[in-house]
Amino acid sequence: MKAILCSRNRHKARELERLLPGWSIETLDAEDYPPETGVTYYENARAKARFGLAAAGGGVHLLGEDSGIEVEALGGRPGIESARYAPEGAPAIARLLGELEGTDERAARYVCELVCITPGGDELRGTGTLSGRIARGPCGREGFGYDPVFVPDGEKRTVAELGDAWKERNSHRARAARALLAALGAALLLVASACGGHDPTQQRVLNAFFAQSPRAHTLGLRFPHEPGTAKCTVRDHGKALEATCATDISLVKPSRAVVTLTEAWNHGATAHTWFFFIRRDGSVESVVQEGSATPRQ
Q1: How far is it, in rounded angstroms, from Cα 186 to Cα 173?
Q2: 138: which DSSP letter?
Q3: What pTM does this model have?
Q4: DSSP 55-110
C-alpha cells in the first residue's frame, strides 16, 4: 500500500513504514504547509492530511501526524508546541532540561495522533500515548527528538538506549499506528469483499496460524478464519452485548505477516485488538494488544 505522509520529516516516514507493515510511505515535498494552529494534536494532524489532499490530490492514502511531549512540571508543555519549542535534537533537549533543573517532578508522556484520508475520501484516526519520566541527562544513540531523555514507565533506560526495535513495539507512534490499522481494517475488508479479492497465500498463512498457536486456536472459535467480519456475542458484567469479530492479515516481505483480530462492541464505539506478528509458517513471534478490556465471553 502506498501512502504520502504530509510532512517533510523523513525520520517519521521511515518509522511509520516499519510500524505499518506492507506500506510504502513518501514525504510530501511542499513549501506552503499551513501553520499548526489547532488546539489539539488531532486538529493539527487532520489539517496536514487535508493539506496533502489539496496538494497531491486523491488516489493514495494521505497521512497527517502530530505528536509532542507533555511534561507535568511544565503544565503539559511543550505539548502541541513541541516542534516549535526549540530546534529538534540537542537544542530542544537542552532547553527542556534547563527548565526542569532543580525539580524532582519529572513525569511526562509522549502523545501521537495519526489521521488517514483514504483514496475513497474516508477519514480515519489512531491515537497513541507513552508515559514515563524525563532523565537528568541524555543517554543513548538511537531514536530521535526527546528519546535520549525519555525513560518509559517500567524501564530504567531511555528510549534512545532501548533502541529502535523497542520503539517499533512500544512507542506512542507505534500505538497510534496500531490503532489506525485497527480502524482501517474494517474499511479494507469491505473493499476486498466488494472486489471479490482473495489471496491464496494469505489464506494459507491464516490457516497455519489458527492451527498452530493455542492462543490463536482459542480466539479462532469466534473469529473468522479468513479476512472478514462475523457477528458474535460478548458478556459484560453478565449482560449480553452484540459484537463483531474481524480478521485481517498483512503479508510482510520476505517471510513474515501481521494478523489483526479486532473485537468491537457498543455499536463499534469500543474495541479490543490483538496484533500477532508471525512467520508465514504460522508460528507466533510476538503479540501486542490495544484498546479496551475484552468483556468475558
Answers
A1: 21
A2: -
A3: 0.68
A4: HH-SSSEEEEEEEEEEEGGGTT-BGGGHHHHSSTTHHHHHHHHHHHTT----EEEE
| 178 contact partners, CB below 8 Å, separation of at least 6 | 19, 126, 128, 273, 275, 288, 290
- Give start and end residues of each alpha helix (H) in 89-199: 90-100, 159-162, 164-170, 172-195
Sheet holding 270-279, edge to edge: 228-236, 239-252, 256-265, 270-279, 284-291
Helix, strand, or coil here: 44?
helix
Active site residues: 66
Neighbours of 205 (CB within 10 A): 21
SS3 3: strand
> How far does CA 230 lie from the centroid of its chain?
24
Q: Name the residue among 6, 23, 10 with its Cα closest to residue 177.
A: 23
Sheet holding 150-152, edge to edge: 24-27, 2-5, 61-71, 107-117, 123-134, 150-152
Residue among 258, 129, 234 nearest 185 (CA): 258
Q: Which residue has the cell 497527517?
A: 64
For the chain, list the domains and their CATH numbers.
2-188 (3.90.950.10), 199-291 (no CATH)
* Contact indicator for 246, 262 with CB cutoff of 8 Å: yes
**pLDDT averaged over consecutive 10-residue blocks of the chain (297 residues)?**
87 84 85 86 94 84 94 95 89 95 94 90 88 95 91 95 88 87 60 55 91 88 86 76 83 81 73 86 85 61
